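Researcher: Please predict.
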Amino acid sequence: MKDAGHLFRFAGLFVVAFLVFLLVRGYVVPKTFGQYGHYRGAAIGDIAKHPVKFAGHQTCEGCHTDVADTHSKGAHAHVNCEACHGALFQRLPATPQPKGNLYERFVALIVPPIPPDAPLLLHAEDPTSVTPTKPDTLVLCARCHTTSAAKPKGFPQVDPAEHMGGVPCETCHNPHSPAMGSDSGGGAGASPVAGGAK
C-alpha cells in the first residue's frame, strides 16, 4: 500500500470532476429536461409562445367565397390556401419572456429572430391596403407535381419542360380546381383546353 496515495489522489480528482460536472449541468441543462422522459417539458410552451403564422383557410374563404366554392369541389380541396399563397402571419401580442438559464440564453443568441410581419398580414386585416402577388404557377405547381419515383402512382405527375413548355399551368388548369373539364377553365378569361396525360 506504499503507492496508495496515488489512488486516493486519483479518486479525489474524480470526485471533484464529478461535482464540477453536476454544478455545470445544473446551469446548462434546462430545468424541465426529463419531465416527460428524455425530453424538455417546457418545449411545448416555448413553441406555443411563437406568434401564429398561418391564419387558416377560413380567413381567406370569408371574403373569397367564389374561389372557395370552386376550390371545395376540386382536386385541391384538401390543400389549404396558404400552402400556395403564403402564410397570412396573423399577429399576436408579444409576451414578456422571463430570463432563462444559461442554455436558454445561449439558444436565444444563436437562433435567428422571427422575421417581421409580411405584407399579407395587412391584406388579412385590411384587404384594400395590400394586394398579394399572384403565385407563378410555372414554379409553384412544379413543386408538387414534378415527376418523382418517391410519389404515389396515382398522384398527378408531369415533366414540366415536356408538359408545359414554358406555358403557365393556369393557361389550361384552374389552380383551385385543376382537373381538365368544363368547370376547371384556366386563369382569368382563359377557356378550358383539352390536355394530354403527361
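Model: The chain has two domains: 46-132, 134-190.
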